[in-house]
Amino acid sequence: VGRWVIDNALSDLKTWRAHGLDDVIVSVNVAARQLQNQEFPLEVQKALDEHGIPPRFLRLEVTELTLMQDSDVANRAIKALRNMGVEIAIDDFGTGYSSLGLVRGLPIQVVKIDGTLVSSCVNKKECAAIVQATSAMARVLGIRLIAEGVETEEQRRLMQSLGCDAGQGFL
Questions:
Q1: What's the Cα-to-Cα distance from 51 to each of 58, 66, 133, rounded to whole Å?
Q2: What is d(CA 51, CA 39) in angstroms, rounded to the nearest whole number?
Q3: Per-residue model confidence (pLDDT) at position 100
Q4: Which strands form 87-93's sheet, in the order they lie side by side?
Q5: Which of 18, 53, 67, 170 is the most buried (most CB within 10 A)?
Q6: What pTM was computed for the model?
């Protein structure tokens, strides 16, 4: 299923690029099981080649929990994918034992703040402090910060003021 999802996402991206959307990056969630497969980076490269998509237009999103499992195979896969030029993002950041320090050795380009944390920030100062601190750490590490689940203008403004580079959600 994981290979099918990547293949379909790249097929759609190829169509969009043919219609002039040349700067779109497609994001695909990756399961821990996929990263445990030593052939996964080769499968991704094959799919990119089949669709004629430059690797920089593919973002693979890995959950924080998956990264915390500290698997050598998964770490090698992430590094191989990044060396190919694929962008790697930590998804659902803030739902577990959130630590950018855990991933500082990995070639991560994006951290996505979990939507439950984003929605809580409007009413809870401690949530806002967590996002702001995460933003400061991300900047030092050269990582982009995306707020997930942004549904209102108030949330967008708050996430921007706390240092998020972008928002994702129904807004």
A1: 12, 28, 40
A2: 19
A3: 63
A4: 26-30, 58-63, 87-93, 110-113, 144-148, 166-168
A5: 67
A6: 0.86
